[in-house]
Amino acid sequence: MMSSHATPIQESRPVTPPLNSAGSPRSPLSTESLHPPPCRHRDRSPSPMRGYLIPSPLPTRRTRTCSATARASEGPSFHGVCKCFSRSKGHGFITPADGGKDIFVHISDIEGEYVPMEGDEVTYKLCSIPPKHEKVQAVEVTITHLKPGTKHETWAGRVVSS
Fold first, then answer.
1. Which of 2, 60, 70, 152 fits as disulfide partner to 108, beta carbons 3.0 to 4.6 Å?
2. How far apart are CA 64 and CA 81, in angstroms?
């Protein structure tokens, strides 16, 4: 016969005692230890670009929209002279043949084998720069005449005399 009284099952598992060490989060010695530790600032290596990490507003070939690229391709071609170009900085300026303000050119918009140098004659198309579309930049830039008497560098790093 079964008894109507249930007998509890006793387990023989060991019980872990509470931690009493001073550094334990479960055993506060005072109310001050209940507060989280102050944040430590992580040391970062000094970077020359620190403080300049805002995204560029200039659309490169990679970030330009398809519609902006199509509008630029359909537009007229212009002639000008390379005023300056820095391969390390990745941009330069073109002086339009008809005068006017210098036009920005990004390294991703240079067509052809050679890195532009001061005095090279170029053709280009224009693309407006967002967000206000008040300024323009040169796209589809092609060197038409290398400046005579100068050494030109190819994108692969080979130096060629012109």
1. 60
2. 24
- Report the C-alpha gap between 27 and 24 in whole angstroms: 6
pLDDT exceeds cutoff 90 at 12: no
* 36-77: pLDDT as tens digits: 555 555 555 455 555 555 455 566 666 667 777 777 778 899
Which residues have CB under 8 Å from 4's CB, separation 6+? none
- The C-alpha R_g of the chain, in whole angstroms, comes to 34
Are 147 and 119 in contact, with CB atoms under 8 Å apart? yes
pLDDT digits (tens, 9 = 90+) for 81-114: 999 999 999 999 999 999 999 999 999 899 999 9
Question: Are the C-beta atoms of residues 106 and 137 closer than 8 Å to each other?
Answer: yes
SS3 6: coil
The encoded tokens of residue 133 equal: 């579309």
Q: What is the bridge-based pairing of β-strands 78-86 and 121-129?
A: antiparallel
CA-to-CA separations, 14 to 7, 9, 10, 74, 78, in angstroms, rounded: 21, 15, 12, 82, 87
CA 37/CA 23 separation, integer angstroms: 12
